[in-house]
């Protein structure tokens, strides 16, 4: 991942404001740059780089001789940039995939540009010739983007909210920071004084619609209709293609492997494709857990089956508790589910960065939301009631790639009849499992392994991670503190000591920003007092079986 940051119409000294950009330095450890905009003394870009492609000419903002009036700062990967370049005969000046944004914009404007991009991205595009600023974000929000804008036209944009909260502005001492909506772009007018005015915010793509860039890809022709064998064949074709296009990098590729269905399918398919591409290094896979973790055991089976260079990261309860503060600061949230799950993610990403040279990391993230994989989906009143909510964890100085959220794969999956996508015979993701039944990609017991939430699977069934946390926090938050919780935290009042503890840490880092979390995540359609899957009746029944 890289870090992007930009200001338009700043009233304060830019050399002071630029200190805020250093809050996201962890996103790009290879290089950084600040650059003022010609003719606008109160506008500037900041960029922290993780060099994944074109290490020589990949610094940003990207500017090319053909379009001296265009400035681009973006974070992401555009997987179809070469296909589009060849189709439209664009002359590239760099090897950076994001350069395609400049050429597409010049050719057809901003709407055609975002609709043609097959990839994940967040960008800031400045056109000084036409006095416009454009913001854009990918369909599922895989790449983060936050903005703050005042009534008098000061605009600040950043990959993370922490890069904006300390900015100064004469008319607004407390800047409201909010996420930029996934699947949208915004058009703003740039005024002579460097300030901006929003013209329109447009939703350019619905996740169930086939994307416009499908016209230019090289995926083999899919089988028509919804006969089960045709559907399974189409899913295999699209999944294979989703991973193949994501091999685009000059850095070493690795893969997270929890031993669950999703990460196992990704790892097995990825290793197969790396061999076909004659990549010279072995695929490194990574699993994390405490002793007796079911995830570690399952991941070991998969790694043995596919022949990866497997790494196991062991941690104890004390190590997990010690990083809670760092996790909450990094993720900018106090949501209980997110914090629990992110401790393992945080520790494993630090291990990868410190102990290996893998930088581009594949993951099974997004599959549960797409394929209705969470245990509580068994209680959904109807297939139509299930909506997609994507949460991608921040990775630290690594590039995360999520093939399950591929545009073509996800739009096809969501276009299938609802009754094909629901849990069957008490088994979630039945269609996905059935699709790879005869592939021998992964062991059968892993293919049909029941869902285990990440924050639960990293610890033994006897002593779940959420219980470890609650036992520790019981001694940190007393009943008297809980009695005054509503007065201290009137918005999103924590109902448990665990929630109170996380909220305290969050408020220390981000005072007055509690509205960044609109509500606590909880399983739907059931009466649940805790978000852990291990507290649900369906899990308990499966565990006994």
Automatic annotation (TrEMBL):
<dbReference type="InterPro" id="IPR001962">
    <property type="entry name" value="Asn_synthase"/>
</dbReference>
<keyword id="KW-0061">Asparagine biosynthesis</keyword>
<comment type="pathway">
    <text>Amino-acid biosynthesis; L-asparagine biosynthesis; L-asparagine from L-aspartate (L-Gln route): step 1/1.</text>
</comment>
<protein>
    <recommendedName>
        <fullName>Asparagine synthetase [glutamine-hydrolyzing]</fullName>
        <ecNumber>6.3.5.4</ecNumber>
    </recommendedName>
</protein>
<keyword id="KW-0436">Ligase</keyword>
<dbReference type="Pfam" id="PF13537">
    <property type="entry name" value="GATase_7"/>
</dbReference>
<feature type="active site" description="For GATase activity">
    <location>
        <position position="2"/>
    </location>
</feature>
<dbReference type="GO" id="GO:0045931">
    <property type="term" value="P:positive regulation of mitotic cell cycle"/>
</dbReference>
<dbReference type="GO" id="GO:0043066">
    <property type="term" value="P:negative regulation of apoptotic process"/>
</dbReference>
<keyword id="KW-0067">ATP-binding</keyword>
<dbReference type="GO" id="GO:0006529">
    <property type="term" value="P:asparagine biosynthetic process"/>
</dbReference>
<dbReference type="InterPro" id="IPR006426">
    <property type="entry name" value="Asn_synth_AEB"/>
</dbReference>
<dbReference type="Pfam" id="PF00733">
    <property type="entry name" value="Asn_synthase"/>
</dbReference>
<dbReference type="InterPro" id="IPR033738">
    <property type="entry name" value="AsnB_N"/>
</dbReference>
<feature type="binding site">
    <location>
        <position position="97"/>
    </location>
    <ligand>
        <name>L-glutamine</name>
    </ligand>
</feature>
<dbReference type="InterPro" id="IPR050795">
    <property type="entry name" value="Asn_Synthetase"/>
</dbReference>
<dbReference type="GO" id="GO:0005524">
    <property type="term" value="F:ATP binding"/>
</dbReference>
<dbReference type="GO" id="GO:0070981">
    <property type="term" value="P:L-asparagine biosynthetic process"/>
</dbReference>
<feature type="binding site">
    <location>
        <begin position="363"/>
        <end position="364"/>
    </location>
    <ligand>
        <name>ATP</name>
    </ligand>
</feature>
<dbReference type="InterPro" id="IPR014729">
    <property type="entry name" value="Rossmann-like_a/b/a_fold"/>
</dbReference>
<dbReference type="GO" id="GO:0042149">
    <property type="term" value="P:cellular response to glucose starvation"/>
</dbReference>
<dbReference type="GO" id="GO:0005829">
    <property type="term" value="C:cytosol"/>
</dbReference>
<dbReference type="GO" id="GO:0004066">
    <property type="term" value="F:asparagine synthase (glutamine-hydrolyzing) activity"/>
</dbReference>
<feature type="site" description="Important for beta-aspartyl-AMP intermediate formation">
    <location>
        <position position="365"/>
    </location>
</feature>
<dbReference type="InterPro" id="IPR017932">
    <property type="entry name" value="GATase_2_dom"/>
</dbReference>
<keyword id="KW-0315">Glutamine amidotransferase</keyword>
<keyword id="KW-0547">Nucleotide-binding</keyword>
<feature type="binding site">
    <location>
        <position position="288"/>
    </location>
    <ligand>
        <name>ATP</name>
    </ligand>
</feature>
<keyword id="KW-0028">Amino-acid biosynthesis</keyword>
<feature type="domain" description="Glutamine amidotransferase type-2">
    <location>
        <begin position="2"/>
        <end position="191"/>
    </location>
</feature>
<feature type="binding site">
    <location>
        <position position="256"/>
    </location>
    <ligand>
        <name>ATP</name>
    </ligand>
</feature>
<dbReference type="InterPro" id="IPR029055">
    <property type="entry name" value="Ntn_hydrolases_N"/>
</dbReference>
């Amino acid at each position: 991942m890289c870090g992007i940051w930009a200001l338009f119409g700043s009233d304060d000294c830019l050399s002071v404001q630029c200190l805020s950009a250093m809050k996201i330095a962890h996103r790009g450890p290879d290089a950084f740059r600040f650059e003022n905009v010609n003719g606008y003394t109160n506008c500037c870009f900041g960029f922290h780089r993780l060099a994944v492609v074109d290490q020589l000419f990949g610094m940003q903002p990207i500017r090319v001789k053909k379009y001296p009036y265009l400035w681009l700062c973006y974070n992401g990967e555009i997987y179809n940039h070469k296909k589009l370049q060849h189709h439209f005969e664009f002359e590239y000046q760099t090897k950076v995939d994001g350069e395609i944004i400049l050429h597409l914009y010049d050719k057809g404007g901003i709407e055609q540009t975002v609709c043609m991009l097959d990839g994940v991205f967040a960008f800031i595009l400045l056109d000084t010739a036409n006095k416009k600023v454009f913001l854009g974000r990918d369909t599922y929000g895989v790449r983060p983007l936050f903005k703050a804008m005042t009534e008098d036209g000061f605009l600040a944009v950043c990959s993370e909210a922490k890069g904006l909260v300390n900015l100064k502005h004469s008319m607004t001492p407390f800047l409201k920071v909010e996420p930029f909506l996934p699947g949208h772009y915004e058009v703003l007018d740039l005024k002579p004084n460097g300030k901006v005015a929003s013209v329109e915010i447009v939703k350019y793509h619905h996740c169930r619609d086939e994307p416009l860039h499908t016209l230019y890809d090289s995926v083999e022709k899919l089988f028509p209709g919804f006969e089960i064998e045709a559907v399974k064949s189409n899913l295999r074709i699209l999944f294979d293609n989703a991973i193949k296009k994501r091999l685009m990098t000059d850095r070493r590729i690795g893969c997270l492997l929890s031993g669950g269905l999703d990460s196992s399918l990704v790892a097995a398919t990825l290793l197969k494709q790396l061999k076909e591409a004659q990549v010279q290094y072995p695929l490194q896979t990574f699993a994390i857990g405490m002793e007796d973790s079911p995830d570690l055991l399952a991941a070991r089976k998969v790694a043995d089956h596919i022949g990866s260079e497997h790494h196991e990261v062991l941690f104890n309860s004390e190590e997990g508790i010690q990083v809670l503060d760092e996790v909450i600061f990094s993720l900018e949230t106090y949501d209980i589910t997110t914090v629990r799950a992110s401790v393992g993610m945080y520790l494993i990403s630090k291990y990868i960065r410190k102990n290996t040279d893998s930088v581009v990391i594949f993951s099974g993230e997004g599959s549960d939301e797409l394929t209705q994989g969470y245990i509580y989906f068994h209680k959904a009143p109807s297939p139509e009631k299930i909506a997609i909510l994507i949460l991608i964890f921040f990775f630290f100085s690594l590039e995360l790639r999520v093939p399950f959220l591929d545009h073509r794969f996800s739009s096809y999956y969501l276009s299938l009849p609802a009754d094909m996508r629901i849990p069957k015979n008490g088994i979630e993701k039945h269609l996905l499992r059935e699709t790879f039944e005869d592939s021998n990609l992964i062991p059968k017991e892993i293919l049909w392994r029941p869902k285990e939430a990440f924050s639960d699977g990293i610890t033994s069934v006897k002593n779940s991670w959420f219980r470890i946390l609650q036992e520790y926090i019981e001694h940190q938050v007393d009943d008297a503190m809980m009695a005054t919780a509503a007065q201290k935290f009137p918005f999103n009042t924590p109902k448990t000591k665990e929630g109170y503890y996380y909220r305290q840490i969050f408020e220390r880092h981000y005072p007055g920003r509690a509205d960044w979390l609109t509500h606590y995540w909880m399983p739907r359609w059931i009466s649940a007092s805790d978000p852990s899957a291990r507290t649900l009746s369906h899990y308990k029944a499966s565990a006994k079986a």
